């Protein structure tokens, strides 16, 4: 049911605070989102009423905790349209999920002379694990380019992905540009050459409807904290047959079947790939975040972000001496903008904005190769989400103008 996004800001207790004696405008959502009271309360309720370890005991509390933990898995499954709940493995976040695949599937399949293909826009989390794997195995790491507006160059992709390619790792949305990448076409190109594809959904799952079966990705990763959920919980989706064949990432409690003096056998999915006590309250909190977004409807979230961008982008384009990275077409992007104001250092811009209670991020955004590609060292990044309003945009644009006047006088 669509509860409507109007006034949802009031559901987020933190957003009513002040920063530097000014009402807060939170525009660092690509780094992490704020949490609605419903998510906070769900975690408190778990600790106050059902806290127990999962999958271990037949006592009532443990059974209730297990039921809630597994319900969260089903919610994630339905949210990204996976075929089965056992295709959802809980991790600490997107970073751990990529490292998981690099050190299991990657280590088992990559040999000298093989190729791993990434895009120049990958977050370090979906780049450095592949870079290190390639180094360790003597494989080659290749980069797919983007064009001047940050659209992925599909012709370049078709050339870079060859019969030697074993793994293609590609984000669905750039965390710097907000540009939406054609992940489905990349998966098709990878499969034509017999490679597998890993999609990074960290910036996509919070803002657009995702269907992993339609994308035909082999693995897909994202973090809970960027979609209203708690930190320390993330998801590794994998096609069942691929997950079945994975060497376990970690060994320990709950992932075994039988342990003898010399050897062990391992349990079924998903527990085979979730060694040790998991982040139970994190998964339950993520489930509550999905419920919250579901009430709003993910289509309404996408449309709302597009409306905000439609309002913001012309105002930014009209500023003097502004370098705006990413697509000029607001239908090709989510609510992330990266810019530079003349020669003013992004940290200086961010500091002036912070004085006015406006929280943005300045820096390389964990995407240094992309910074190099665009020949910049850093940018100011403002990232919008469901609780941001046109008034927030007005204050952001006014503060940018003020920063320009302040540094250029
Ligand atoms: N990929 C992308 C596109 C991201 O934006 C981020 C977080 N900035 C990550 C991966 C890593 O997420 P986490 O730090 O939650 O593991």
TrEMBL record:
Q: Domain named Aminotransferase class V: which ranges?
A: 25-396
The GO terms this record gives for MF are: cysteine desulfurase activity; pyridoxal phosphate binding
Q: Name one GO biological process term.
A: cysteine metabolic process
Record's superkingdom?
Bacteria
What the entry lists under Pfam families is as follows: Aminotran_5
Enzyme Commission number? 2.8.1.7
- Cofactor(s), names only, from the UniProt record: pyridoxal 5'-phosphate
Among InterPro entries, the record links this protein to:
Aminotrans_V_dom (IPR000192), Aminotrans_V_PyrdxlP_BS (IPR020578), Cys_dSase_SufS (IPR010970), Cysteine_dSase (IPR016454), PyrdxlP-dep_Trfase (IPR015424), PyrdxlP-dep_Trfase_major (IPR015421), PyrdxlP-dep_Trfase_small (IPR015422)
Provide this UniProt record's keywords sorted from A to Z: Pyridoxal phosphate, Transferase
Transmembrane stretches in the record are: none
Recorded catalytic activity of this chain's protein: (sulfur carrier)-H + L-cysteine = (sulfur carrier)-SH + L-alanine
Recorded hits in PANTHER family, A to Z, give: CYSTEINE DESULFURASE, CYSTEINE DESULFURASE 1, CHLOROPLASTIC
The record's family statement is: Belongs to the class-V pyridoxal-phosphate-dependent aminotransferase family. Csd subfamily.
Q: Main role?
A: Catalyzes the removal of elemental sulfur and selenium atoms from L-cysteine, L-cystine, L-selenocysteine, and L-selenocystine to produce L-alanine.
Name the record gives this protein: Cysteine desulfurase
* Taxonomic placement: Bacteria, Bacillati, Bacillota, Bacilli, Lactobacillales
């Amino acid at each position: 049911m669509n509860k409507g996004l109007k006034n949802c800001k009031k559901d987020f207790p933190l957003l009513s605070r002040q920063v530097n004696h000014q009402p807060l405008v939170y525009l660092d959502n690509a780094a992490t989102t704020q949490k609605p009271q419903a998510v906070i309360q769900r975690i408190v309720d778990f600790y106050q009423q059902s806290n127990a370890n999962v999958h271990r005991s037949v006592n009532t509390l443990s059974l209730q905790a297990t039921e809630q933990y597994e319900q969260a898995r089903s919610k994630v499954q339905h949210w990204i349209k996976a075929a089965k709940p056992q295709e959802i493995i809980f991790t600490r976040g997107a970073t751990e999920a990529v490292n998981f695949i690099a050190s299991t599937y990657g280590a088992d399949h990559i040999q000298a002379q093989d190729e791993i293909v990434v895009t120049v826009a990958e977050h370090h989390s979906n780049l450095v694990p592949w870079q290190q794997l390639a180094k360790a195995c003597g494989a080659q790491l290749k980069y797919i380019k983007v064009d001047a507006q940050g659209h992925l160059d599909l012709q370049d992709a078709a050339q870079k992905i060859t019969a030697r390619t074993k793994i293609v790792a590609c984000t669905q949305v750039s965390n710097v540009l907000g540009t939406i990448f054609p992940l489905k076409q990349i998966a098709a190109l990878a499969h034509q050459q017999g490679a597998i594809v890993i999609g990074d959904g960290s910036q996509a799952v919070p803002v657009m409807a995702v269907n992993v079966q339609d994308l035909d990705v082999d693995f897909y990763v994202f973090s809970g904290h960027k979609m209203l959920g708690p930190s320390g919980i993330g998801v590794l989706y994998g096609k069942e047959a691929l997950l079945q064949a994975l060497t376990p990432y970690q060994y320990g409690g709950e992932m075994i079947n039988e342990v003898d003096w010399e050897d062990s056998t391992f349990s079924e999915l998903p527990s085979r790939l979730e060694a040790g006590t998991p982040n139970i309250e994190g998964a339950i909190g993520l489930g509550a975040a999905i419920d919250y977004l579901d009430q709003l409807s993910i289509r309404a979230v996408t449309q709302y972000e597009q409306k905000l961008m439609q309002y913001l982008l012309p105002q930014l384009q009209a500023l003097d001496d502004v370098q705006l990275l990413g697509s000029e077409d607001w239908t090709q992007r989510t609510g992330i903008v990266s810019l530079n104001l003349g020669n003013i250092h992004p940290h200086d811009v961010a500091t002036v904005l912070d004085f006015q209670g406006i929280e943005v991020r300045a820096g390389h955004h964990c995407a240094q190769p992309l910074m190099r590609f665009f020949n910049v060292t850093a940018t100011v990044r403002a990232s919008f989400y469901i609780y941001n309003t046109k008034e927030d945009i007005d204050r952001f644009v006014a503060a940018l103008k003020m920063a320009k006047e302040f540094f250029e006088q």
